[in-house]
Amino acid sequence: MKLTRLITLGLLVVAVTAAAQTRPPAYKPKTPPPARATAPATPPAPAAPGKKLEYVNGIADTGQFLADTTVLATIGPRTVTVRSYVNAYFAQYPEYRPRPDSLGRIDFLNSMIQKDVLGMTALSIPREFGFEDRLAMRTHTQRTLSNAVYQHYVLDSVKVTEDEIRAFYETQKYDQHFRHILFADRATAQRVRDEIASGKLKWDVAFTRHHKGSGKSDLGWVEQTSMPPEIAVRVYPLKPGEISQPVADRSWWHVFQSVEHRPRTNVPPIESMRTLIRMTIGGLRTSERAEAIQVVLRARIGMRYDTTAVQWVSTRFGGSNMGMETGPGGSPSLSIADTVPAFSAEDTSRTLAVWNNGGRLSLAGLLKAYTDLSPVSRPIMNTPEAVQGQIDAIVLEPYMAEYGRELGLEKDPEVVAQIERKREELLVKHMFSDSVESKVWISKADRQKYYKEHPSDFTTYANVRFAVFAENSREAADALAKRLRAGEKAEAILAADSIAGIHRGSIQVRLENEHGPYHKLLFEEMRPGQVTVEGPDRDGHFAVMQSIAFDSGHLLPYEEVEGLIDESMQNVRGEQMLKAMLARFMARYPITARYELLQRVKLVDPTLDE
């Protein structure tokens, strides 16, 4: 039984219920963490004089916005604060967020109240978890602990000081003349780099022997803004003659040498670049810190890659799975490819990594984890390092969680809250299934009645089949139109054009809900058989069009849409039952909501704050 629209309504506690409570103070584990990246203490930068007035969603920030701890609603023992409201709002996918106007804000607060009501009610109903629930809880706990290690000992340990920002800003004041060598893997890049730096190997000889790309070693003058930020932050501070450590982009490992500097003009002020510089340096530090922890974990479990297999797998994956394509009417749209390279059964059995006590990851295991990700979340894996990164993510997660337990993070209030949130989500799911989903049943007579009363819901869109030709002059367009009006078939003209190597037209089918050029003409003005000449366009071209056939839409047979009718009626009845259930449950709890405060909530994504 499918209740598509109700799934979102039924799982009302996902990522929100516990977040609606005031966040407790951060837990400080007693177990000493691994060595952390530290930065020299520096006094805060003085506030800039004459600070400009900031605007939030078009509204001037004059101090009217509420503090994060302000309570917007109480639901029994629970509260919704400004912080939890904003976090929950931006935790949703953009397409599911209500509008940020007054009605949208009220609707969202009401949904948070309903989620808490369902959550507290589900917790009050005794229920034993089955195998699938216990597996879900174990997986969630493992991931939560792994994320907590990353948060505490990677993200929280990365600090970028004002001195570091200013030092990197100084590199904006000159251009660099670079030369470089490209390598397929880090180990070779490091070895060759060290040989060059020690004088054992000449640069030109190293380039001839080891360069994996095309082109010359000398890159000429390179502006910092033309380099990827993660590379610029490493190599632009080089002094003339210095050689960089190996740095990676999406395809290669690079070793750079600075040849010379020259001053730049029109350097932007530091104020306009401070945030970008902080993000660039912070991102690099985060990657280094995460790798340092992974090195420790790999050593603890004795993990080893099969580098030959890893290299081979990386050659089978392409580049980005996202791109731009032209949609209806010529508008650009984002396309996401969900294709995965095909491998034989023999290939998928290949071992990619092994570790202590018989641990092994095969290509089949890597592909399973990769395809479980949504296409937009899948990493690019066209380099050995990228494949190893995905292997690390799969293999090291349980050991990262174990490491988190050793550090005492199981007692971190945020970790506890996230685990309890998952437990509550599962309980709500069961309550929804027992109280709503299992009780929704639609009879055949009801389905037939719905079909008769809602014919427009099951009628196809109108569509038109037409031919269109492009001509470069009015004379040629009129001549072609005359041939069509005389009864010559568009199909015959196109076939003759194809034999002669001419490409000037096509036969197309367009649905009424698809919008493209000449839409009104095709659906409202032309009749089957009619020919028209349109143009010229801004390039001087003419379009010769003929409507071949028109279908105004037809009612689909009942047998074809019976399943759709059943699902639609289940959604309607299930939603009615859910609303009635919510009304009963809400009467059990004292609820107050301060709707008048919602317009004073600073509705800005908290992840964008510095």
Automatic annotation (TrEMBL):
PROSITE patterns: PPIC_PPIASE_2 (PS50198). Its EC number is 5.2.1.8. SUPFAM superfamilies: FKBP-like. Coiled coil: none annotated. Residues 173-260 form the PpiC domain. GO terms for molecular function: peptidyl-prolyl cis-trans isomerase activity. Keywords: Isomerase, Rotamase, Signal. Residues 26-47 have a biased composition (Pro residues). Residues 24-48 are annotated as: Disordered. Residues 1-20 form the signal peptide. It catalyses: [protein]-peptidylproline (omega=180) = [protein]-peptidylproline (omega=0). This is peptidylprolyl isomerase. It comes from Eiseniibacteriota bacterium.
